[in-house]
Amino acid sequence: MKFSYQWHRYLGWVLAPLLSVSALTGVTLLWLQPLPSPQASPPTVQEWGKALDRGMVELASRYQTAKADLVDLPRGPDAPIRVHLRMAQPSESGWAEIDATRGTAGELQPDSRDLKTQLFELHEHLMLGEVGPWVLRASALLALISVTMGLRVWWRVRRLPVRSFWQQWHRWIGPFAILPLAMMLTTGFVLRSPELANSALSAIAGGGSVVPPPAGQAASAGQRSTLGQALVAASVALPQARPIRIYAARGGVLRVRLRVDEWNPFGFHSVYLREADASVLRIVRATEQPLTMRYLNVVYPLHTGWLPGNQGIVAALVARGLWTLFALSLAALSLSGVVQRFRKKSKR
Fold it and tell me: Is the residue at 336 inside a domain?
């Protein structure tokens, strides 16, 4: 047990700040996500399309060198359309909102000043650029090892008297939080390791891979369809689905992502359209996606506390409350372990 105790203590000492940052930024991002819409009726996509086109014309006249690479469609009754504009200088890129009814566009909010973008960068990269995900992957694996060792130590000392409030707090939280924490750490590692996950699932599925998008034809400025036209065409192709996001054209092909009732909040239905005239090239439904994509339908919702199907507001609040409790438990375990370590050093 001495080996497990020592390494649990050492790993906890190193990982405490990283795990606390991941837990607190993650739970903040969770509450920044919009709640499910209480309206059961489908959105008026034609109105969205007209508003999007009016807003894009206004943004194009205001930011002439900008290119729209993502369009997030409203996920609530009063939510705006959000457009990510990529500028010549990456530091100037950011999000602009378009009123989904009137089509008026707001000012560009640079990524450097957008709270959600900064929190996401801290959660996913620790502000370390490309090195950040590798640090987080290693942290997740080491944290799983530390959790296993901590459980073994707890089993041996669970009946011994505690010496301080912090020790009692640490010993009480650990056993109850171990399973959800292990789930969060495992799903976090998988989400930050898409290459490893795809390789493993490709081997399991017999070499299945993501189907490449259909070939398109580069559109000239005079014959390019609008994003609003592409949105309406995709919704007509899949009338039972709710459009979630529009991706910028690649190789003359636009992609609209839609959701029916799959678990992942971003949906797994895709409609590919020709950029020149918004004609439908191919429809890829959620069940037709390869295993290397379908695993995200489970892993991502488990990590973010999203319930399957068309959840209501009450169910979403309960799920977020539980995931918040799990995240705070991780931060509390890290904090109480660090405090115990400081107290022991101060007494020497």
Answer: yes
